Each structure stands twice: as structure tokens, then as C-alpha cells.
Amino acid sequence: MIQAQAEEIAIQAFAWLSEQESLLPVFLAASGASAGDLHRLLASTRGPDEAFLLAVLDFILMRDETVIACATEIERMPEALLQAQMVLSGAAQMHWT
């Protein structure tokens, strides 16, 4: 997966998360972001930065149920969320050999 694909998946996940009434407050509390921050990011032509997108994916990947719900809604395989997180974090570039 390339960077642009990872960012696209993360943006889709962010859009999904922003519509989740039960999860969004938990994400805001965990990330330190405010509702105003989210509105600015959604309205921005540049969109959220890579660090914020990584925080979204990290949050979603914490629970299997959340991964499955998000992946289903954005029409991706659940593994795609993990792959996107790895690319954005740089972990996809690590080699342990």
C-alpha cells in the first residue's frame, strides 16, 4: 500500500468516526481534540494532517468491533485499516532482518 492509499483509507475512517455518536466523544477525550477541531478539519480543503489520521486509525484499531464496523461502512477489508496505520506510522518500512 502506498502513502496516498493509506491517507485515503484514513480519511474515510475519519469521516466514519465523525458520524459515530457513541465513539466520537471517546475519541475526542482520548486524543485531546475538540469538536471545533474536527469541524475545522472536515471543512478544510487540506484535510487532516498525517498525525491526526494516524490517531484516528490507532483509535479505531483498538477494538475488533470498531474495526469491523468501520471497514464495513467504508467498504474496505478490515486488514486495510491496519495496513494504512502501518504505512502512516512508518512501520511498513521496518525490516527486522
List the helices and strands and how they pair.
Blueprint: H1 3-18, H2 24-31, H3 35-43, H4 50-60, H5 64-74, H6 78-89
Helix pairs in contact: 1-4, 1-5, 1-6, 4-6
Describe the structure.
By secondary structure, this protein is mainly alpha-helical. It has one domain. The protein is 69% helix and 0% strand. The protein has helices at 3-18, 24-31, 35-43, 50-60, 64-74, 78-89. Helix 4 (50-60) packs antiparallel against helix 6. The two termini are 21 Å apart. The mean pLDDT is 86.
Provide a compact summary of the structure.
With 97 residues, the chain is mostly helical.
Average pLDDT? 86
**Secondary structural class:** mainly alpha
Give the uncertain stretches in residue-range form.
Answer: none
- The best one-word shape is globular
* Main sheet record: none
From the structure above, extract its key features:
single chain; 97 residues; mainly alpha
